[in-house]
What we know:
Rossmann fold, 7-stranded mixed β-sheet, 53% helix
Amino acid sequence: MVEFTGERVIPGQVNDDLWSEHVARYAFASRFAEGKRVLDAGCGAGYGAAELAQSALQVTGLDIAPDAVEYARVTYPLPNLLFLVSSCIATPFRPNSFELVVAFEVIEHLQDYRAFLNECARVVTPQGLFIVSSPNKSYYAESRAKTGPNPFHEHEFEADEFVSELSRVFSNVRLLLENRVESFAFHPPRTFWPAGVRIDGGGGTAAEANFLIGLCSFGRLPDPQSFVYVPKAANLLREREQHVQLLEQQLARTKKWLAEAQAERDALLDLYRKQTDELLDRTRWAEKLGAELDALGEVLTNERKAAEALVRDYEARVAHLEGENLVKTEWALATETSLEEKRGELAECLRLLEAAETTVVERTLWAQRAEKLRADLAAQLDLIRQSRWVRLGRKFGLGPNL
């Protein structure tokens, strides 16, 4: 199934206006197709070629898209209708193969549109007719101002350039304008009568036209005659009124949706205001907390400075005590040395005393003197025992145990 992408029209997948716009061109061309060999260059989905085949001797539809050609073959299996996959710039046909060549909404899709025009001129007979259409660049740019250029178009034409390029290849060129018009139809309810058409007023300027149609040939062009295509003879006013009713219903739904959206917006705005007020309260609280933290930081800074001063004072006191301890340690070491010397002297005294005691029997007198000496030494020893230096030495585990 071929899908509508915007590059080509697919029956049943586009709105009525777009469909009628394309079919009208083939209805116009069918007036020149009776009993002729016709080429539809860029036939797309094949609906136009099928329209031409109703009166033509043989119609060949040509398109570069295989899926579009396959869709056309399946959808329009007519005996005088052939579909081929081929480029429009280099076709497989001999020169002068067709009395009528049509190319509707193709030329603007091609980069090398001049080669395309040359190829169409090659395959059409000298007395044949080439009908080509393209959207009017001036109108198209205005109508697509909001949506942007058509991404499938390579080159669009204004009227003067369009005629100039066609005249480069064909000796006879006539420009027609395709526009949508409002009309009144007089017709039977069910059957069809031959139609007569009257067009009052001018057709507008080429710059204002919707589409440009070129009739080209090397021989005499058909006699000029306006053509009106009516998709269906119906009560257009009633359809418009019904359409207006649908638009009014849609407008009512849109208003309802807008009211709901407005209510939702108001609720969101109310929530936003509440959140803004709450945010302001929190901001004020944060500012207050920040001020308190700044004050607390100042207090902590002062306390830190005081603590650092106290630490420095403690360090100075410790250094002083360490100095005193060093002096006392040196004194204790000196005292220990002195006591060692005294202990040696006392040891010698004891040795002499012991020697004296061994001779006490033989030397009584000497012993008496020695006893007296011993008593004196004992008294001195008591004095030593009572000495605070000795006691201090004992306290530190120094000196002899007297």
